[in-house]
Amino acid sequence: MSIEYVDYRDRYVPGGSAESEARRFHDALAKRRTVREFSDRPVSRDTIEWIVRAAGTAPSGANKQPWHFVAVQDRATKHAIRLAAEKEEREFYAHRANAEWLADLAPLGTDEHKEFLDVAPWVVVVFKVTRGDGDSQVYYVNESVGIAVGLFLAAAHLAGLATLTHTPSPMGFLTELLGRSKREKPFVVIPVGYPADGCRVPAAALRKKGLEEILTVV
Ligand code: IYR
After folding, report:
1. Ligand 1 pocket check for 181: Cβ under 6 Å
2. Which of 38, 56, 64, 166 is surrounded by the most beta carbons within 10 Å?
3. Per-residue pLDDT reduced to its tens digit, 91-104
4. 167 lines ligand 1 (CB under 6 A)
5. In 10 A of CB 147, how many CB atoms?
6. Is 191 in the pocket of ligand 1 (CB under 6 A)?
7. How far apart are the CA of 87 and the centre of ligand 1, in A?
8. What contacts 176, CB < 8 A, 6 or more positions away?
9. Would you say 192 and 43 are in contact if contact means Cβ atoms under 8 Å apart?
10. Pick from 139, 147, 136, 152: which is nearest to 191 by CA?
C-alpha cells in the first residue's frame, strides 16, 4: 500500500529562535510539580478534552495510537477507584514493597491513603491498547503510550493544572471497574485539577539531576 504525501504547510513556526523557545518551554515545564493534594475546584470537560487531544497528537508505532483515556468525573466511580486502589496500596506498603523501595518512597511521604482520588475533579485513567481493531497488531506500545502521557502532563501543566502520575500496583481492577476490554491494560492513573490551597510538595522530590548527569554529547 503506498502512502499519500501532502505538503507540510502547517509546520509550527515559533516567534523566537529555536534556542530561546526551547528555553522558554523548559522554564515553564520546570515549574511543574507532582502534587498529591488537590482542590475540588471544577475543571471543565472541554479543558480535559483539549488535554487529551494534545496527548493524542503523540507519535506512535506505525501510527496505531495504542492508547485510550477514560476521564472520570462521576463521584461514585472516583470513590470506587479510590477504595480499590487503597486496597492494593495497603498490600503494597505492608507486604509487596521491599525495604529499598519503601526507603526510596520515604522522602515523598506517600502511603496507602489516596484521598486525591475523591477530591480531584477528574481522574483520568490511561489504558494501553495491546491489540488493535479486528485484533490487529500494535507496536512499541509502552513507548507510544509513555510519550502520549508525557504530552498529557505537559498540556495540563501549561493549562495551569496540577497532575499526579499515580500507579496503584497492581491496577488490573481498573479494567473491570471501567468496563474496558481485556485487550486494554491500565497504564497509569492521572488525577487532574488545581492544587489545594496551601498544597506543599516534598523538597526532596524537586532536585533534578544536572545536565552533565543526563546528557552526553559525542
Ligand atoms: N503505587 C504506590 C507507591 C508509589 C511508588 C512509586 I515508584 C512512587 O514514585 C510513588 C508511590 C502509591 O501510589 O502510593
Report:
1. no
2. 38
3. 999 999 999 999 99
4. yes
5. 17
6. no
7. 14
8. none
9. yes
10. 152
